[in-house]
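PROTEIN DATA CARD
Card holder: DNA sliding clamp PCNA
Chain length: 283
Origin: Bathycoccus prasinos
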Amino acid sequence: MFEARILQGSILKKVLESIKDLVTDANFECTANGFALQAMDSSHVSLVALMLRSTGFDHYRCDRDVTMGMNLLNMSKMLKCADNDDTITMKADDAGDVVTFMFENPKADKISDFQMKLMDIDTEHLGIPDTEYEATVKMSSNEFQRICRDLSSIGDTVTIAVTKDSVKFTTSGDIGEANITCRRTSDGDMKEEKVKTEEDGEKVHNTKSSEGQNVDIDLQEPVTLTFALRYLNSFCKATSLCENVRLQLSKELPVVVQYLIEDMGYVRFYLAPKIEEEDADES
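Structure generated from the sequence above:
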């Protein structure tokens, strides 16, 4: 028997909203350690890894390891029936073919339950090796979301260049190009943005970084990689889960975009870098 109860149902709703557009069908692995998911998107360019530790739930019971195949769009539809302050309980029998979602709202004295059919999904579990990354950037989730959104209006890809003092995001398209540089900061430091278009030339904006918008960089050596913006924008749907996002980069490896989920666990997105056209031509 598997049973897990989370007091703040909005967390589970936000998690599903952040991954449902990338992954359609996926297996949730329920073990004594927690509730986990690992799945690739349909194009096999990005990977999602979710972990909600058992210790983060108000109640957690897993008598034996259970694999539950679910359609994430359908799961999201069911969770939308819960209010944000509802307590959500998930239940499934070891050999059952349904999962039950129970929503409890003590204030309204209301209990709702929904059953969803489970699926047999044949997927291969990919081992993600522990990696020492050359660059780790911690910055405001909202700021990272805004940068990805702004740059996607100009170009399709973004080049992320990390040095010991700053992280620079660059894109170009038919209308021009844009460069946004976030300096390594401390409280009260300044943040610099450069935006250049064909019409405006180059502009430099200096604004004081507010609390929670500081940039922290742990660097072994400088890294410059290019990624598809549409995937990064999709990852940013997890912005509401936490104040800061962590980016981990190494040459020729997928970037890791991690959002911590309070005291429960994390959502990690992995995205393969784009191969430069000149490199592709040589090969």
